[in-house]
Structures are given as structure tokens and as C-alpha cells.
Design brief:
By secondary structure, the protein is mainly beta.
């Protein structure tokens, strides 16, 4: 329907046509009541024939009008007259981003600025529960003064043009139920293409496609037909932007790739997060960016449940974030060393007067116990609480401790029973089992607690979930001095990479930092204005940072070594431990009497041992792994000969004939690949939309057990046929890992809490409970010996048994006790030869000393 000059729609006098498209015609008009020029969009007349559309149109137009943000088109009014539905909005001067891109790609700085404004607008809309679902350059307007305006919020849900077999086709339905395709092909997320429910993360995928196009001048997903474009969205990554011969910063390309993850769970989880990282990259946060820091990738130091290591390493594509820092010009802090023994510091807290520090340490390989040391003293005294860790000290002096503490699924996290120890030194009173962290509220009566992961959660009061990270885990929860907020660290499953967040007592969480490759320990500044924490944006050398509630980040202390931050005193002094950490591999070769150390670099994590016991497969993901976010996958003979780097990948498992290794290449998304151990050609396996995190060969090598997930779903175990590329689920969602029996008839897997073990027939049938396990034991490897299944306790030393999971028969095999147990926090990932005459396992060692830092600013 065309309107002529002078036509009135309510108080709006049409002056001239501006443009037209599939969603209606736009006119310049005069608001005769307020004396201002506005834009009037007249929507298609077909709307009037559909009452449902009319109601939805009015509701969503009003929702859009409620959005008041400089990066969203302001909607002033909505009306109906003479059969015409219309929307009145601010009148913009400039051009759409599509028109701007016709001249070619944008300068990098301009693309970052536009993307940042786009993310801020999305964040405002998502906060109101509005998802755009049709972001594209046509719906992004560049004003004449360089501002970005997002157009048509709400309308994208309502358009219903007919499907046209073309890569730029606009499709949609007003309904938003699963199964309905909605959006613009080429910018739609994988879940939109499948007709699945789309949330805020779908908009972030579209934003990533737009940013890619601004930088490269090419569409991220574009085929000769609609089918080709859909296939690209579901299965392919856009070409590397470096192929355009433009100098795109690696950190910026990583942000784009993170937006374009096929699985929504692996993308940025909010537009706030995307805006935050773009701010740091652009420098608009007020922080400077040292070039050397900006170029470094985030590295994840992974540790898996031993059952998972025996099956597959949980890997998500390593994503690098640039961390802005402000140079520290203040006087360097003064160090005072407090401990002088050989072992690992687990935790430390100031007493209320700030003069004494209570800490938990495992010295000379003994179990952890509590000690106290006075500032300025060199003598520590034992408190008589063995196998305990300090969690928090109230203003009254009452301690919250973790008794019967043991390392949980990761070496970075202990679990035990929460207990209260009165200030008068009387006996501990036990409160709760299965606790990882706790902190006193300022009133000294209530405690916030953290349950161990996965999935870990923050509770306050105990029993009420305040924050649930999903598949990740939470650590180091600390109340703000006024008791209104709790700061905590949030991590991906299986590693200590993560970020700092805060949550209020109503459960509203806010992410304060970008992701770090490792982050350990935090505490509030005495005035409650900043959170101090120890972290590293790349590698494992943690420094001390501070971040305020406006997400302004600064460096407090950077020096050689790696810090764990434990506590901050009322006068601002800080207690830290400085540590050396490494993951290593021990092995007993066939026919040998003594174990040998086969560690290679600093983070050697065992994945598998060949059936003859002569070769191990391991990964490196620490400081020395090297190269653009790539973990190294290595093979090494147990005779101690040099390791051979097989590929940039992880989660490697060796075939029965020792000729091939199947693992995960850390692309975007990760792909399952097969690499030769000698001469031969590697190949990529087509898993469709299935995102792998690890796999193991079936006997004969034609099929695989794959551990992975479909987009939007949790991890589970699949049976994959390499000849037909067909995948069939073997376990329910949430299963942890899968150990295949030597005959290929069963997969053994843990349930989601890591406690119950099940046997799943690979050829169909009901699952059955695995027998013979005792509390705290985890499966390690399945051999051809009798009994065949190797299980181990979680402690150090680790007691290892062989059991028959069908009958429950148990047989003690050995105890893993390293010759120097000092600082070893965890043993696991044990793999054995098929005859059990050789084995190998991973160990995690931390050697640390406690320091008091003064003159900290």
C-alpha cells in the first residue's frame, strides 16, 4: 500500500517515501503535535487479515518502544487507521550497514567500534527479554554522526514472506515454537536453521556473522543455493579472515569465531560479555593494552575425571580474550616469606586482628592439616586439625573448615564436610557433607557454600541455589564487606580457566572480567570497591589483578612465578602463595620393576597406552604447548626416547594395531580426526552437527565410541560408524565419559554427579549397574586381564583394584605412591596394557610457599 504526500495517519502527515522492503514501506512524516520529523513504517496489508499477527504486532511494537537505548531505533508510537497498521520511529540520517559495505570491508578500528555499539544495543534489548532474530546489515543503520542503530526489533518475529530458493531469502513465521524457521538465511544461527528455539545467543551468532563481513568484506556463510548456505551454517567455518590479506588482529578473529560457534553453549553467553571483550580490544574501557599481552592466546590447563581421561578429554575450542590492564606505577609491594617446608599450600585466611594467618598445607607428602603463623614470624604451629582445610574465619574468630578434605574430580578443588570450629579451640561441629568452598556472611552466623562440580553451584543460605553455572563449576565464593554481594570464580568444566563474577542475594549475577587461562583465588578489598584475584590471560604464570563493579581492571602485581591469592587483611595486606605447578606422567614399562617419569613439557596429560604397553599418547596444554591456541598431541615410547608430536589436537586414543590415533582437532568447531603414528594420511571424520570431545576405536577399527554433544544438548556417548558416518546414542545426556570393553560389547560411563557407574550395551538393550565399586573410586581402564576393569581411589596415594563389573569380584592390584609425594595433589588417568604388565598415569604437583604482601596499592 502506497501513501501519497499529504496523507494523514493520525497526527502524522506523510511527506515523502524513503524506502520499501519485504516488511513494509517507510515514509518521512511530520508529527503535527510535537512539530518534529519522524519515520513512519506501514506494514503489509496482509497483517489485517490475521488477528493473531495483529495482536503480536501490537505487543512487540510496544515492547520495542519500551527500549530506550542510543543504539536501538527509538519507537515513538504504533497505530491503526483505515485498515493500515503503522509504526512511528525516530527519523535517521545516514545509511544502512548493507549500503556502507557495498564499498568494501571497513577499517578494523571502525568495525570494532560498530560491533561494540551493536553489542551494547543487543544487551539492552536482551535485558528486556526481546530477541531480534533477524539481525543483518540491512537492519543495522549507520547514522551520519557514526552511531549504530538496530532497526526492526520485534518485527523480525512477525515477517512471513514466501520462501524463495536464494541465499539472501528472508523467511519467517510469526510463531516462535520449535520447528519454525525464522530469520534471514546467511545470518541465521544453526538453531534457527533447524527451526529450534532461538534465544539471545542466536542474536550473538548473527552479530558474529555481521562482524565477519565488516572485517572481510565477504559473507560468513554464502552458497550458490539455499541448501548450500544451510549446509555451511550447520557444518562449516567461514574462511580464515587472514585469507583476505588484511591485518586482522588474532584476538579480534577469536572473538568472531567465538560468536560463530555452532553450539549455543560454546558462544558468548550474553551480549554484555561480547561488549566487554570488544571494549577491552578497542580500549574504550579506559585501559591500555600492552601489545605483547594482546597477542597471547588463552591456554587452558585441563584435568579430567580419571574416567573421562580414560575415555576422552573434554575439550572446547580454546578462545583467547584480550585483557586490558592499567600500568602499575605505585611502589612495588614488599614480600615476607612465611613458610619454608616442602609441599603445597591449599588455603589461607587472616584472623580478625590481621596479625595471624591460618593456613592448610600438605607438607612432605603428608595429608593436609591446619597451621597458624604470626606476621613477622618464621615459625608455624599445628592446630591439631588434620586432613582439614581453612575456608573462612568470622569476625568472632570462629572458623569454617573442610574436614576429611579430599581432592575432587579436579586437582583445583577439594571436597569434604563443612564444620565450625569455635574461637575457643573446642571441638569442630560438623554441618554439611559434600561442600567445596564456604564463606561467612558479615554477621558471622550464616554461610554461603559452594557444592563441587560438575555441575557446581553457589548456595546461600545452604540449600538455596543462588547461582548455577550449568556444566561448569564455581570456586572461591567471598562475601563483600557489606554482605550485599558474593564474588566468585566461574570455570569451564575440567579446568581452572575462568572469570570473576558477582551475584547479589536475589541471584542476579554479573560477569566482571573476560576469561583467563587460569584463575585461582579471590578476596574483596577492605572498602568493598574492588575484587582482587590471581589470574593469567595466557599460560600459567598468574599475576594479581583487581577489578571493580564497573569492570575496570588493573594489575596489582606482576612478577616471575605464579600466585594463588588467599585473603586480604583489613589494612590491605595480602596473603598469597607462590607456586610452581606441573602435570606429569609416570609409567611402568613391560618387564620393569621401577616406574619412569615420561613427562615432556610442563603439562603432560596422559590420554592412552598402547595394548602392548610400549607407547603412551599424551597431550600438552601448558606454557610450552605453543602455537595459536593449539594443544600438542604426542606419542612417546616408554623406553624414554624423545616424544613425537603427532598433531595439534587433544584427547588422543590409539588403535589396537598402534597405527592410528583418533582425537580432536581444536578448530571452530572442534572436529574428530585420525592421525597416523607413522607414515600415512590423516583424515577428518564427518560427524554432522555432533561436536566431539573425544573418541576411542572399536575392535577392528571400523567404528568409534564418540563422547560429544549435539548443539543445545548435554554430553553423551555415541556409537559412530566411520563408513556410513552414522551416529547412534549409547547413553542418556549428562553421562560422563565412556570406557569401551575390549570386546566392544559394553560402554561403561558415570552419571552426571560422577558417583554412579553404568554398563550400556553397544548393540542395544537396557543398561545395568556396574558392580564392585566402592565409594570414592573411579574407573580407569578396561583390559583383557582377569578381573578386567581397573579402578582407583581419588586420594594420594591411590589404591588401585581390578574388578569384574558384572560379578563384583575385586582384587587389589597396587598402590600408586610416587617416590617424592610432596606437593602431589592428584593421581589418575591410569591406562594399562591389555595384560596389565605395564601401566602409566598422570600426576599433578604443586610446590608452594606462603608470602605476606605489604604496601599493596
Amino acid at each position: 500500500m502506497s501513501l501519497s504526500t499529504g496523507t494523514h495517519l493520525g497526527p502524522y502527515e506523510i511527506q515523502a517515501a524513503i524506502g520499501a522492503g519485504g516488511m513494509g514501506e517507510v515514509y518521512r512524516a511530520r508529527d503535527t503535535r510535537l512539530g518534529r520529523d519522524v519515520a513512519v513504517k506501514v506494514v503489509p496489508a496482509s497483517f489485517s487479515d490475521d488477528p493473531t499477527r495483529v495482536v503480536r504486532f501490537e505487543q512487540e511494537a510496544r515492547a520495542a518502544a519500551a527500549l530506550s537505548h542510543p543504539n536501538i531505533l527509538a519507537v515513538h508510537d504504533v497505530g491503526f487507521q483505515d485498515g493500515v497498521h503503522y509504526i512511528v520511529s525516530e527519523l535517521l540520517e545516514g545509511e544502512t550497514l548493507r549500503e556502507r559495505l557495498r564499498a568494501g570491508p571497513l577499517p578494523t578500528r571502525k568495525a570494532i567500534d560498530y560491533a561494540l555499539l551493536l553489542a551494547r544495543g543487543l544487551a539492552a534489548a536482551h535485558a528486556r527479554g526481546i530477541v531480534h532474530r533477524d539481525l543483518k546489515p540491512e537492519n543495522v543503520f549507520v547514522t551520519s554522526d557514526g552511531q549504530i542503530k538496530i532497526l526492526d526489533f520485534g518485527l523480525a518475529k512477525l515477517t512471513r514472506p514466501e520462501w524463495i530458493p536464494d541465499a539472501q531469502t528472508v523467511t519467517g513465521q510469526i510463531a516462535s515454537a520449535p520447528g519454525v524457521v525464522l530469520g534471514t538465511l546467511g545470518y541465521m544461527s544453526p538453531e534457527q536453521v533447524r527451526g529450534a528455539a532461538a534465544d539471545e545467543r542466536s542474536d550473538l551468532f548473527s552479530a558474529g556473522a555481521i562482524l565477519y563481513e565488516m572485517l572481510s568484506g565477504k559473507r560468513a556463510f554464502h552458497g550458490d543455493s539455499s541448501a548450500d548456505t544451510i549446509t555451511a551454517i550447520l557444518q562449516s567455518d567461514p574462511p580464515e579472515m587472514s585469507d583476505t590479506n588484511r591485518p586482522i588482529p588474532p584476538a579480534l578473529e577469536r572473538i568472531v569465531r567465538h560468536c560463530l560457534e555452532k553450539n549455543p553453549a560454546e558462544r558468548f553467553q550474553s551480549a554484555h560479555d561480547l561488549a566487554f571483550d570488544l571494549e577491552l580490544l578497542s580500549g574504550s574501557s579506559g585501559a591500555s593494552r600492552p601489545a605483547a599481552l594482546a597477542a597471547q592466546p588463552v591456554r587452558r590447563r585441563r584435568w579430567l575425571v580419571p574416567a573421562l581421561i580414560a575415555a576422552a578429554l573434554v575439550v572446547s575450542s580454546a578462545v583467547a580474550y584480550v585483557v586490558g590492564v592499567r600500568a602499575a606505577r605505585a611502589e612495588q609491594p614488599a614480600f615476607s616469606r612465611l613458610t619454608f617446608r616442602h609441599g603445597a599450600i591449599r588455603s589461607a585466611r587472616f584472623t580478625p586482628d590481621g596479625r595471624t594467618i591460618v593456613y592448610g598445607a600438605a607438607w612432605e607428602g603428608k595429608p593436609v592439616e591446619l597451621f597458624a603463623v604470626r606476621a613477622g614470624s618464621f615459625e608455624s604451629r599445628a592446630l591439631g586439625l588434620g586432613n582439614a582445610e581453612i575456608l573462612s574465619i568470622a569476625k568472632s574468630g570462629e572458623m569454617a573448615v573442610l574436614v576429611r578434605a579430599r581432592t575432587h574430580l579436579y586437582p583445583f578443588e577439594s571436597v569434604g564436610t563443612l564444620a565450625r570450629v569455635p574461637a575457643d579451640g573446642s571441638a569442630a561441629r560438623e554441618l554439611l557433607d559434600n561442600v567445596a568452598f564456604a564463606d561467612w556472611a558479615p554477621n558471622g552466623e550464616d554461610l554461603a557454600i559452594v557444592r563441587p562440580g560438575p555441575p557446581g553451584r553457589l548456595e546461600y543460605p545452604p540449600g538455596k541455589t543462588l547461582h548455577d553455572p550449568g556444566t561448569g563449576w564455581v570456586s572461591h565464593a567471598r562475601f563483600s564487606p557489606d554482605g550485599k554481594l558474593i564474588a566468585f570464580l566461574e570455570h569451564w568444566q575440567g579446568g581452572d580457566d575462568g572469570w570473576v563474577s558477582v551475584v547479589d542475594l536475589a541471584g542476579r549475577a554479573q560477569k566482571l572480567t573476560a576469561q583467563f587461562s587460569t584463575v585461582e583465588g579471590l578476596a574483596w578489598a577492605p572498602d568493598g570497591k574492588e575484587v582482587l584475584f590471581a589470574a593469567s590471560p595466557a599460560g600459567a604464570g598468574r599475576s594479581i589483578y583487581a577489578v571493580d563493579l564497573s569492570r575496570r581492571l588493573r594489575v596489582v602485581l606482576r612478577t616471575a612465578g605464579s600466585f594463588w591469592l588467599h585473603d586480604v587483611a583489613p589494612d590491605g595486606r595480602i596473603v598469597v602463595s607462590q607456586s610452581s605447578e606441573r602435570m606429569g606422567v609416570k609409567a611402568l614399562p613391560p618387564g620393569a620393576n621401577d616406574e619412569v617419569d615420561l613427562s615432556w613439557f610442563d603439562w603432560s596429560l596422559l590420554h592412552d597406552m598402547s595394548r602392548d604397553g610400549k607407547t603412551i599418547i599424551f597431550g600438552e596444554s601448558g606454557e610450552a604447548s605453543g602455537g595459536r591456541e593449539r594443544y600438542g598431541l604426542f606419542a612417546r615410547n616408554v623406553d624414554g626416547s624423545p616424544a613425537v608430536r603427532l598433531a595439534d589436537g587433544d584427547a588422543g586414543k590409539i588403535s589396537d594395531d598402534n597405527k592410528w590415533v583418533v582425537g580432536v582437532s581444536l578448530g571452530n568447531p572442534p572436529q574428530l580426526r585420525i592421525w597416523p603414528t607413522g607414515a600415512g594420511q590423516s583424515r577428518t571424520l564427518n560427524l554432522g552437527s555432533l561436536v566431539p570431545v573425544g573418541a576411542r576405536f572399536f575392535p577392528g577399527g571400523r567404528r568409534l565410541v564418540v563422547f560429544g554433544s549435539e548443539p543445545g544438548h548435554r554430553l553423551r556417548v555415541y556409537l559412530f560408524d566411520m563408513e556410513t558416518s552414522a551416529a547412534r546414542p549409547l547413553t542418556p545426556e549428562g553421562a560422563l565419559g565412556g570406557i569401551l570393553s575390549p570386546d566392544g560389547n559394553y560402554v561403561l560411563s558415570l552419571d552426571e554427579d560422577g558417583e554412579k557407574v553404568w554398563l550400556y550395551p553397544t548393540e542395544g538393550g537396557d543398561r545395568r549397574a556396574a558392580l564392585g565399586f566402592e565409594k570414592g573410586e573411579l574407573p580407569q581402564d578396561w583390559t583383557k586381564a582377569s578381573p578386567p576393569l581397573i579402578v582407583a581411589s581419588r586420594g594420594v596415594p591411590a589404591k588401585v583394584f581390578r574388578i569384574d563389573p558384572f560379578t563384583g569380584d575385586r582384587q587389589f592390584w597396587k598402590e600408586l605412591v610416587p617416590s617424592d609425594p610432596a606437593g602431589i595433589l592428584m593421581l589418575g588417568g591410569l591406562a594399562a596394557s591389555e595384560k596389565c604388565d605395564a601401566y602409566a598415569y598422570s600426576y599433578y604437583r604443586v610446590l608452594s610457599d606462603l608470602y605476606l604482601l605489604e604496601a599493596v596499592k
